Amino acid sequence: MKEKIEMLKKDLYNVFVMGNADDRQLYRVYLLIAVPALVFFAMFGNFPKY
């Protein structure tokens, strides 16, 4: 578990601070941000009705 947290911290640092992340790091950070945001919008947001 500690390894995963350290890896995630390194990924966040490379993506947002250094800017030299590879595709796998970008993917992990994207999922870390996108999944909770989608859950939040699904619970509290209103989707457009067509």
Structure at a glance:
The chain has 50 residues and is mainly α. The protein has helices at residues 2-18, 23-44.
Structural overview:
It is a single chain. With 50 residues, the chain is mostly helical. It has two helices and no strands. The chain has one domain (1-44). It has helices spanning 2-18, 23-44. The longest helix has 22 residues, at 23-44. The radius of gyration is 14 Å and the shape is elongated. The N and C termini lie far apart (44 Å).
Topology:
Blueprint lengths: L1 H17 L4 H22 L6
Helix pairs in contact: 1-2
Keywords: Membrane, Transmembrane, Transmembrane helix
Considering the chains and any ligands shown, give keywords for the structure.
50 residues; mainly alpha; 2 helices; transmembrane; transmembrane helix; membrane
